[in-house]
DNA sequence: ACCTGAACACCGTTCAAGT
DNA sequence: ACCTGAACACCGTTCAAGT
């Protein structure tokens, strides 16, 4: 029975929605999304699997809860602390770095964030916490961005984070387990791509952190141009 | 039996890998990824489902084939025609527009492109056709970019396309079918987000095409700065 | 050579029954 | 009130059997 052992120190006490979602996040972190099954998650919690349906509408809703929960970690991150920001540039930088930390902390969960169907059908759903979006729109409009530009910034910023972090996170977790992830048989042959071979060291090198800083700064510069008739805000000293 | 009727004019003749992958792409376009099942795909091809295993290693490998096939549509697109490009800027613009057309033509397939596990473990796998990556690296190095910068451009460009197109494509296909997509019960309430409500018209407005042009141009400007000691290439006239 | 029937181990989900 | 056993309809996959 390889999927037991839910909480480190937590009591073996009653199930509820919070505990189930938290367990699902830890389960995915440990075993990967493809291993998450209602019955296995039940076993992980010391319970029989169908018991979960008493607290959660079903598997799809559970996954939505997982995404929401992980994205909402932002609001508990002391290095983010969005309420006490020093201007919109600082706010967006904290947000970006906080979300990057989350993506790196939950690399198996993050692709789920990108691909779940939308919660509110009319809001393009990238980094899906409505709380997160609301907070960002508030800061941007308070900073003087028009409603239209605030929405445009939201789209640009979240598509940047989505693409960048998805790219960075994929290809991690190579050593997830002993023989798990059963090595899908590829249908194509990898030979015959000389430049891929020659540039291999540059493609696999891990310059992700620096790439991220540079791309983020370029985006913020671009956003600043939307602000009506003000000098570009002074460049901040490097965030942590 | 709602999942029959494979090819418009194609003969009902022998199965092979190509025909199966093409059918899978069309099936996903029509019914969505979540409906794709070996047995339903079999029925779609007028065959019994287990028959597919004679030509395809399994479901996972089939999905890899679907991704590869869709991304490789680029090489058949006459508006792309990457072999006859006029410099790297033109090449990247054609590539970007071609990939956007593909994403919009196969909105149900595109998220798969973003989330399949890597083919070659050392190449960060965004827009996964190795043929595509090889071609791009060749153009960039021929244009004078160092190996290191060519790899950096590949990462920046593909993460841009990944994030942007994933965002644009999600939230399409609302009317996929009559009562399909059984309206997952959300666990949270949508009320209490005043700015989301106020900016709703700006968030749902479809300015995607123009956004895309602007973000692409900004990225290309940024890439041009990597090219050693040359003036920025002249701005091209608006691509189609 | 290629497809099918039957079978296996496993899914998500429901619900009457236990405690 | 909360969990379990049994059941249902459906998965992916294998393989001996049909044609």
From TrEMBL, chains A, B:
Xref: PANTHER family:
HTH-TYPE TRANSCRIPTIONAL REGULATOR RUTR, TRANSCRIPTIONAL REGULATORY PROTEIN
What PROSITE patterns would the database entry show?
Answer: HTH_TETR_2 (PS50977)
Q: Point out the DNA-binding stretch(es).
A: 37-56
An example of a Pfam family matching this protein is TetR_C_1
Determine if Transmembrane helix is one of this entry's keywords: no
The protein's superkingdom reads Bacteria
Q: Which UniProt keywords apply?
A: DNA-binding, Transcription, Transcription regulation
Residue ranges of domain HTH tetR-type in the record: 14-74
InterPro entries on file: Homeodomain-like_sf (IPR009057), HTH-type_TetR-like_transc_reg (IPR050109), HTH_TetR (IPR001647), Repressor_TetR_C (IPR004111), Tet_transcr_reg_TetR-rel_C_sf (IPR036271)
- Transmembrane ranges? none
- What is the species of this protein? Paractinoplanes abujensis
Transcription among the record's keywords?
A: yes
One example of the protein's molecular function in GO is: transcription cis-regulatory region binding
Protein name, per record: AcrR family transcriptional regulator
């Amino acid at each position: 029975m390889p999927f037991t052992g839910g909480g480190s120190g937590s009591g073996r006490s009653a199930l509820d929605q919070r505990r189930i979602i938290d367990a699902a996040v830890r389960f995915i972190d440990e075993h990967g999304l493809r291993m998450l099954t209602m019955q296995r998650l039940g076993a992980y919690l010391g319970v029989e699997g169908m018991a979960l349906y008493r607290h959660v509408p079903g598997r799809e809703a559970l996954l939505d809860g997982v995404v929401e929960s992980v994205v909402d970690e932002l609001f508990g991150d002391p290095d983010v602390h969005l309420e006490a920001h020093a201007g919109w540039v600082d706010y967006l930088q904290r947000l970006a770095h906080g979300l990057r930390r989350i993506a790196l902390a939950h690399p198996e969960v993050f692709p789920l964030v990108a691909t779940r169907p939308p919660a509110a059908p009319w809001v393009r759903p990238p980094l899906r916490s409505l709380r997160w979006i609301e907070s960002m729109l508030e800061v941007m409009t308070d900073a003087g961005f028009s409603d239209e530009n605030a929405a445009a910034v939201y789209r640009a910023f979240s598509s940047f984070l989505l693409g960048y972090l998805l790219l960075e996170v994929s290809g991690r977790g190579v050593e997830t387990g002993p023989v798990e992830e059963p090595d899908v048989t590829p249908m194509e042959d990898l030979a015959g791509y000389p430049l891929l071979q020659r540039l291999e060291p540059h493609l696999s090198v891990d310059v992700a952190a620096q790439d991220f800083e540079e791309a983020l700064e370029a985006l913020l510069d671009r956003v600043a141009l939307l602000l009506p008739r003000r000098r570009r805000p002074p460049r901040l000293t490097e965030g942590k």
